[in-house]
Amino acid sequence: MPETDLSTLLPKIWDAFLETLIMVTGAFVAAAVLGVLLGLVVYATRPGNLLANSAVFNAINAVINVVRPVPFIIVAVALIPVTRLVMGTSIGPIAAIFPLALVASVAIARIAESNLVAVDPGVIEAGAAMGARPWRVLFTIVIPEALGPLTLGLTYIFVALVDATAVAGVIGGGGLGDLAMTYGYQRFDWVTMFIVIAVLITIVQLAQFAGNRVARLVLHEGR
Amino acid sequence: MSTAISFEHVSKTFAVDGREFEALRDVNLSVERGDVYGIVGYSGAGKSTLLRTVNALERPTSGRVVVDGRDVTALNGRDLSAVRQRIGMIFQQFNLLQSRNVYQNVAYPLKLAGLPKAEILDRVEELLEFVGLSDKALQYPRRLSGGQKQRVGIARALASRPDILISDEATSALDPQTTGEVLDLLRRVNREYGVTILLVTHEMDVVRSIANKVAVMQDGEVVEHGTVYDVFANPTHPTSRRFVSSVVAHEAPASALARIRTVHTGRLVRIHVGDRESNDPFLSRIARTHGVDFNVVYGGVSELQSRLFGTLTVELLGADVDVDAAIRDLAEVAEVAELSGPRELEAVDA
């Protein structure tokens, strides 16, 4: 078992931490925007809803259902040519954002859709009864009412992204997961591995804490 | 008085699992301006479906619903939206926006109507004052009790100064005390603001306490309608009778009659008494004339809209010819029905 030298280890962990942060936040922001939009489109084109369009609805559903069950490592590998095309490279944390964002988008789309569908139909009806037109109902009633649970869903995806970056690391993304794998798994350097795990746990805890706080704010549970 | 809402040959058929279900069958009713009109019926009678045709949340399969002279069944888009803003609606489950506080909930229809902020502020303040929730403006609905939620619902429904308020089982999720408070509020809405109210309920008590007219529905049809006094004092359809007997216990149920029969073996008559205009002691006067004795064995008198009505079950004792003569005389003063054999007694309560 190799000696662990903290003075060379800590900068390495710091760099890996930054790489993870870039991958997670980059993918998260992109996926949140794309995923919520996608979820909105699926919700709105659902049969009986205001933009009811079974062609669009079925097409997006098919895409989501194709991407979701495929293990992330396979998506990431299969997408390498596309990643190179879109991001200019297929190696490094910036490149890893692409497959991460794609996978996270479809997951967020499903979460957003189910949060929107779960909005109390009575409240939507009240909006219609007050004379709000369908678009107005969507933007001033359905979306605000779905925001609380959506925040929790987004937090869940953020944590899942931290997890997925470890896999992205293996195929050249770098980051904390990659560090843990190369030092802990391949070199039996338990100290490095445990420090990395502790950092990962801290990130997840902080993210969950922040997500819960935001959700409470949105749900007005404080008052 | 002009007509606020008229239902003209309204029918509605739903397709459920490939089978057709008639929710409304040729309903004809008219609600006059200023009415508090109650629609009662058991669940599935079609009363909520009928109510929801007023603001076209439900569209009839055939027939017309005319609100303030406009056929709402023909409206769409902007026109429908405009008409809906003139019709307030309250719900059993309140349907408040959870993501907005009380103030924002009441302000919602005013924002829809495009009122300037300052006017919205004044109007919401006035409405919250009216429903007694001025101190709750910044609270979120989840923190309110059921009664408070419904008061917010009422304030929201009144925000755009509608001429008509429709109420879908608005008190059915509330306890009796809170129900009373909400009904008091609705009564004020009707009297102080002159709002015509059409309400659906399965509780006859609600109708008795605030409505002036009532329609009884069963299987998608209106089986009886009229003023609350007439329907309560003299229900003709069996369903109406059952509803009336749920709040007015003037007539002995079968169990009580059976008990009465064990002691009172003479001839029993049921006498319906309306609002009387003289103090003619008709019962004792007629009994004395014909040499008949009587026992009052069951009965009651109630007040409705400042008028009295009641039913007495009376045992008449004497020779058959004398009792016959007494019943003939009674029939000239009041509505009389003889309860004879045990078979009929059962039929009465069936």
From TrEMBL, chain A:
<keyword id="KW-0813">Transport</keyword>
<dbReference type="InterPro" id="IPR035906">
    <property type="entry name" value="MetI-like_sf"/>
</dbReference>
<dbReference type="GO" id="GO:0005886">
    <property type="term" value="C:plasma membrane"/>
</dbReference>
<keyword id="KW-0812">Transmembrane</keyword>
<dbReference type="GO" id="GO:0048473">
    <property type="term" value="P:D-methionine transmembrane transport"/>
</dbReference>
<feature type="domain" description="ABC transmembrane type-1">
    <location>
        <begin position="17"/>
        <end position="208"/>
    </location>
</feature>
<keyword id="KW-1133">Transmembrane helix</keyword>
<dbReference type="Pfam" id="PF00528">
    <property type="entry name" value="BPD_transp_1"/>
</dbReference>
<keyword id="KW-1003">Cell membrane</keyword>
<dbReference type="InterPro" id="IPR051322">
    <property type="entry name" value="AA_ABC_Transporter_Permease"/>
</dbReference>
<feature type="transmembrane region" description="Helical">
    <location>
        <begin position="188"/>
        <end position="210"/>
    </location>
</feature>
<feature type="transmembrane region" description="Helical">
    <location>
        <begin position="94"/>
        <end position="112"/>
    </location>
</feature>
<protein>
    <submittedName>
        <fullName>ABC transporter permease subunit</fullName>
    </submittedName>
</protein>
<comment type="similarity">
    <text>Belongs to the binding-protein-dependent transport system permease family.</text>
</comment>
<feature type="transmembrane region" description="Helical">
    <location>
        <begin position="56"/>
        <end position="82"/>
    </location>
</feature>
<feature type="transmembrane region" description="Helical">
    <location>
        <begin position="21"/>
        <end position="44"/>
    </location>
</feature>
<dbReference type="InterPro" id="IPR000515">
    <property type="entry name" value="MetI-like"/>
</dbReference>
<keyword id="KW-0472">Membrane</keyword>
Automatic annotation (TrEMBL), chain B:
<keyword id="KW-0547">Nucleotide-binding</keyword>
<comment type="subunit">
    <text>Homodimer. Forms a membrane-associated complex with FtsX.</text>
</comment>
<comment type="similarity">
    <text>Belongs to the ABC transporter superfamily.</text>
</comment>
<dbReference type="GO" id="GO:0005524">
    <property type="term" value="F:ATP binding"/>
</dbReference>
<keyword id="KW-0029">Amino-acid transport</keyword>
<dbReference type="InterPro" id="IPR041701">
    <property type="entry name" value="MetN_ABC"/>
</dbReference>
<dbReference type="InterPro" id="IPR050086">
    <property type="entry name" value="MetN_ABC_transporter-like"/>
</dbReference>
<dbReference type="Pfam" id="PF09383">
    <property type="entry name" value="NIL"/>
</dbReference>
<keyword id="KW-0067">ATP-binding</keyword>
<dbReference type="Pfam" id="PF00005">
    <property type="entry name" value="ABC_tran"/>
</dbReference>
<feature type="domain" description="ABC transporter">
    <location>
        <begin position="5"/>
        <end position="244"/>
    </location>
</feature>
<dbReference type="GO" id="GO:0016887">
    <property type="term" value="F:ATP hydrolysis activity"/>
</dbReference>
<dbReference type="InterPro" id="IPR003593">
    <property type="entry name" value="AAA+_ATPase"/>
</dbReference>
<keyword id="KW-0472">Membrane</keyword>
<dbReference type="InterPro" id="IPR017871">
    <property type="entry name" value="ABC_transporter-like_CS"/>
</dbReference>
<keyword id="KW-1003">Cell membrane</keyword>
<keyword id="KW-0813">Transport</keyword>
<keyword id="KW-1278">Translocase</keyword>
<dbReference type="GO" id="GO:0005886">
    <property type="term" value="C:plasma membrane"/>
</dbReference>
<dbReference type="InterPro" id="IPR045865">
    <property type="entry name" value="ACT-like_dom_sf"/>
</dbReference>
<dbReference type="GO" id="GO:0006865">
    <property type="term" value="P:amino acid transport"/>
</dbReference>
<dbReference type="InterPro" id="IPR018449">
    <property type="entry name" value="NIL_domain"/>
</dbReference>
